[in-house]
Amino acid sequence: MHKLLLLIENETLKMWKKRRFLVIVLVLLVIIPMFTYAQLTVAQNNKDKFADWRNEVLQQITDMQNRLSSNRIPEEWKKQQRIAVQQLQYYLDHDVNPSSPNGVTFTREFMNNAVGLFIPLLVLTIGSDLVSGERGTGTIKMLLTKPVRRWKVLFSKLAALTLYVSLLVGVMVLLCYLISGMFFGYGGWGLPIFTGFTINGSEVDTSFVHVVPQWLYMLMQTGLVWLSAMTVAILALMVSVLVRSTAASMVIMMASVIAGTILSSMSSSWENAKYLFAVNLNLPAYLEGSPPPIEGMSFSFSLIVLAIWAIAGLIVSFSVFTKQDILN
Amino acid sequence: MRSSKRLGIMIGGCSLLITILMLVGIGYAIKDQLFPSVSAQPQVTALPEQTAEKNQLRIVAIGDSLTKGVGDSAGGGYVKQVVDSLAADPDKQAELVNNLGISGLRADQLAQNLKTDKGIAYALQQANVILLTIGGNDLFQSLQGVGDSNAAATAEQSMSLAQVEKGLEEGLTRLDNVLSELHRINPDARVIYMGLYNPFFDVEELRDGSLEVQKWNERAYDMLHGYSNMTMVPTFDLFEERIGSYLSSDHFHPNHEGYKQIAQRVVQAL
Fold it and tell me: Fewer CB within 10 Å, N or C, chain B?
C-alpha cells in the first residue's frame, strides 16, 4: 500500500515536471479575461438599452417569438427556441433574473459552455501521453523492470490523472471566479436558480421545477463537469496504452471529441449517435433544462452511457497494459 | 528531494479535496435530478409595481409585424423612426422601453398575452406612451400573399373578401378586449393606435377591401374615443395610391419609406 502511494506520488511529480499544467493555467489566464471582457460589453450594452433585467428578458422572449414565427427556420431549431422561451418566461413569472451579472453566474456559465469541448481538450493535453509518452522516450522499460506489478504502475498513472483532472476543474472555477469577480463583483452565491425542467417534445413541464441556491447549483454542475472530464481522461489513458505514438493518441481522442460536438449540434438524423461518449459529455445541460442533443437522451441515460464507456476503457487499458510486450 | 516531496503532498492534498467535493456534487446532482422533491414548488411572485416618470417619453410598442418592422429593409420599422426623431428633439426626452411586436400576432392572442403575461404588463406600466398596431392579421390573414403570387386563385379571392367581412365583427370584439386590457394595465399612458390600410388596393378584385378597412377604422375609432387617453393615427390614405412606393415586396407590409410616413404621423400626434 505504501509502495502504491509512493508510485502515485512519483507519477504526480512527473506530470508536474512536464509543465503541461502550467501551460493550461496560462491558457486559462488568457481565455477567461477575454470572455469576461466580452460579457462586460454585453452587460454594458444591455444596461444602456434596458431599464432593468425584466425588460431585457421580455425583449429576449419577444425576439425569440418573432424568430419562431418565421417559416424559414428549421423545425429542430424552433423546438429549442420554444423551450428557451418557456424557461425564460418561467424565470420572468417568478421574478428571478436568469443571468444576473456577478462572478458566480459568470463562472457557472463559463463552465457550462466549456464542458463539451474546451475542458476535454485540456484534459487531453495532460492525459494523452501518459503511457505512449513513456514509450516514446523509452523510459517505460525502466519503469517496468522495477519489481512492481504492472497493474500498479498503470493504477498509479490513473490515480495521478484523476488528481490532475480535479485540479484542472478546481483551478478553472477558481480563476473564473477571481478574474470575472473583479468586474462583476464576487457576490451571487445565494441567488435562486431553477432546476428540474422536464422536456416533452417542445413543451416544458414545470411541475418538478424547484429552487436551488446558486452555490449548490455550482457544486452539482461542477461535479458533473468533473464526471465527464474523467470519462474523457480514462478514454485518453486507454488510447495512450493502445497507440504507440503520442501524436496519434492525441489526434484520435481530439477527433472523437470534436466529432461528438459536431454530431450533437447536427444531431437528430442519426439517432444511434447517442451511444457515443462524446455526445453525452454535456451533463450540466440536463441540470439547466436545455433539450438533449438527440431525442431519447436523458440525464440517467447519459450517466449510464458515460459509465459504460469509462468502465470499458478501464478494462481494456488494464488488460492490454498488463499483457503487452514492450518492444524496441 | 524534500521540496519535491512537499510539492507532491500539496498537489495530492488539494486535488483529493477537490475530488471529494466533486463526488459530493455528483451525489447531489443525481439526487436532485432523479428524485426531485415536488414539495418545494416555487410560487409565482408579482413583479414590482411600476410607474412611468413624468418628464420624459417612455415608449412601449406592442402589436403585430408592423410594430416589429417587417418589410423595413433598414430594420426597426416605424417604432425606431418615431423614437429616433423624438430623441433628436431636445425638449422631448424619448426612450424606447421595449418593442414587443410579434409578427403574425392577432388581436385575440394579444388580448390573451396582456391578460396573462406579467412581463408585458410590467413593461407597459413603465410607459407613458404606448404605440399599438393590431388587427391587420385578424382582417387579412386569409389574403396574405395574394398580391405577389400570380392570380391563380381569382375565384378564391372574391370568396376571401367575404371572409374579410366575416372577420371584421370578430376582430373588432377582440380589439375591444385588447383596449380594455391595456386600460386596466396602464390607464394613464397615451395609447396611439395605428389605423389599418388596405394593402390590396391595387388588386382589382380586392379593391373593395378598403370599404371593410374603413369600417374597421371607424368602429375602432369609436372604441378608442371611449378612453380619454387613446387616439388613432390613420394610415389608409398613405397607401391608397402609393402602394408601389410605400409597400415592401411582400405586398402586405410597408417598406422603409412607408414606415417613415407612419412615423411622421405618430410624431405629429405626440
Answer: N
